[in-house]
Design a protein that fits this description.
The protein is an alpha+beta fold. Among the domains are: about 60 residues, no CATH class; about 70 residues; about 45 residues, no CATH class; about 90 residues. Helix content is about 40%, strand content about 15%. The chain has 18 helices and 13 strands. It has a 5-stranded mixed beta barrel with strand order 1-2-6-3-4. Strands 10-11-12-13 form a 4-stranded antiparallel beta sheet. The longest helix is centred in the C-terminal third of the chain and has 32 residues. The C terminus is likely disordered.
């Protein structure tokens, strides 16, 4: 079997095999090789190895020798000459007005010729350019057109991921990349997202295509239903690098599970045998859910165990428990009041757990009886204060704390009775005030105002009877309510804006309202219309000034 050694050249897209001819050459050495173009300088990328005859497409070229330090210096000098020649290359391309992009210049190690690399979309007539380059460099010129991928590989750079370009770092032969590879990897079909610096699809799409294809061939399809102890779950997305599935339960909880941990149900195995296809897992067991570090899943499993009758406690560790403190004084008083209201005997402690269900029913019944008794007393016309006092004294147990008095709504009859009592009390107070003020009014005219010095309070009290005597003798509202001439009624929604109250007004008040309305109408009729002081503009009705 022939022995070969791979060698990498600066402007070559992949490694080339050469015959070492028994030289002690290893990986990392620089070698001088004979190629179809001439003598070239390259680096050995691997140790010599044997290959089959069928893998060789052409006879092997020999390795002339291992490069010395002088050969390495010469190679560096030729590389600098190539960089300097790029300026002349661009100048002559612009002079000849050719549609091409200069990429690089390579001087061969043996000095046979110089190779000019350029990129162009179409064929270019560069015959005049070759003549100009030959006359300037005094060497044989070779023009080589390359594609955009080779151009990017020679120039170098960094990709969207922040790493060095794959074509520059890995090299090798370019393989075709299709849009189907991007679809298989669930990437957005946006040209700016999946295209590289060269404008073509990224090379890394092909690197990971096989891994995505293999994972999707073994995993259940998206939106498939997976059976779990917590109910059915649906596959939401894939995590191919980790070979995990993201599942979503019907309750909304989301968790991840490894594809290797999932199992196939008996129905799935039977269906795969009938159809003659691979069996895809569709079940997640309980032991797999127990391994998931998710608080939501653990709580859901505890709830499931409680429903199944398994005693799982409260799910708290002893270090996480909080010691219950003794009840506060306020809570103690509330418990004692509840125990007293329920009629508990001395046999039970006031620090018990409270009333039982039977005691609660008894208290509800007693409260409903009290409400019915209050309604009946209110309907009979009893005073609300007396009824509340009798009720509290009859039902309040001995030694118990006084309960809070509840607000009670008065009926229409009770409200009218209260208004009449208030009017009667106000009338009695007015009569008592008039009786006390009469003697002082009689003695007042005989005295001199200059000699008597009154205080401000005494002056106000003396002026009040005089004002009352000067006013017309019109009964007050309290007197009218007490005599029954005016009936007090409450305005309710929908009564037409108090129409019922307007109908019960006194005749004097109605006549006074009519008089005021007549005066307002007369005033409105006597009001003159103000004329505008602005001069009229010349119109149809205007007469010319004389």
């Amino acid at each position: 079997m022939p022995v070969v050694v791979p060698v990498k050249f600066p402007f070559a897209s992949r490694d080339l095999w050469f015959d070492p001819h028994g030289l002690d050459i290893v990986q990392g050495d620089y070698a001088i090789c004979s190629t179809e173009r001439g003598t070239e300088f390259g680096m050995v990328t691997a140790d010599p190895r044997e290959v089959a005859e069928k893998d060789l497409s052409a006879p092997l070229k020999p390795v002339l020798g291992i490069a010395s330090d002088a050969d390495c210096d010469r190679a560096d000098e030729l590389a600098r000459r190539g960089e300097a020649a790029m300026a002349d290359f661009r100048e002559l391309v612009e002079k000849n007005q050719l549609d091409m992009k200069p990429v690089g210049v390579e001087f061969l190690f043996g000095g046979e010729k110089v190779v000019f690399y350029f990129a162009a979309e179409d064929r270019v007539d560069f015959r005049q350019l070759v003549k100009d380059l030959s006359s300037r460099f005094r060497m044989r010129v070779d023009m080589r057109q390359i594609g955009v991928r080779d151009e990017t590989r020679l120039v170098g750079g960094y990709a969207h991921c922040g790493q060095e370009l794959c074509c520059t770092r890995f090299g090798g032969q370019f393989e075709p990349v299709s849009i189907r590879m991007a679809k298989e990897q669930d990437l957005p079909l946006n040209s700016s997202k999946i295209s590289g610096v060269c404008g073509r699809l990224m090379c890394c799409l092909r690197y990971e295509f096989e891994a995505y294809k293999d994972f999707k061939g073994r995993a259940p399809k998206k939106k498939a239903i997976i059976e779990t102890p917590l109910g059915r779950a649906r596959i939401q997305e894939y995590d191919t690098p980790k070979e995990q599935l993201v599942l979503r339960l019907e309750s909304g909880k989301v968790f991840r599970v490894n594809l290797a941990d999932m199992t196939c149900s008996d129905e799935c195995v039977k269906r795969s045998k009938e159809q003659g296809c691979a069996c895809r897992p569709d079940t997640v067991t309980r032991d797999i859910l127990d391994k998931i570090e998710s608080p939501e899943i653990k709580l859901a499993l505890m709830e499931l165990d409680r429903e199944m009758g398994v005693d799982v406690g409260d799910g708290l560790d002893s270090s996480d428990r909080i010691a219950a403190s003794s009840p506060t004084p306020r809570r103690k008083k509330q418990r004692e009041a509840e125990a007293a209201a329920a009629g508990q005997g001395s046999g039970r402690s006031s620090r018990g757990r409270g009333k039982g269900k039977a005691e609660a029913d008894a208290s509800d019944a007693s409260s409903s009886q009290r409400r019915r008794r209050r309604r009946s007393q209110a309907a009979d016309g009893a005073a609300p204060e007396a009824a509340a006092q009798r009720e509290a004294s009859a039902q309040q147990p001995a030694g118990a704390a006084p309960s809070r008095r509840r607000r009670r709504h008065l009926s229409a009859e009770d409200r009218n009775e209260a208004f009449r009592n208030a009017a009667a009390r106000a009338q009695e107070q007015e009569r008592a005030t008039e009786g006390k003020a009469a003697p002082s009014d009689q003695a007042a005219p005989g005295r001199s105002r200059r000699r008597r010095h009154k205080s401000a309070a005494e002056g106000a009290r003396s002026e009040a009877p005089r004002q009352q005597q000067s006013k017309p003798d019109v009964p007050s509202v309290a007197e009218q309510v007490a005599s029954g001439e005016v009936k007090v009624s409450r305005r309710r929604p929908g009564d037409g804006g108090g129409a019922a109250a307007k109908s019960t007004q006194a005749p004097d008040a109605a006549r006074r309202d009519q008089a005021e309305a007549g005066d307002a109408a007369a005033t409105q009729k006597r009001r003159r219309r103000r004329r505008s002081r602005k001069p009229r503009s010349g119109g149809e009705g205007d007469s010319p000034q004389q």
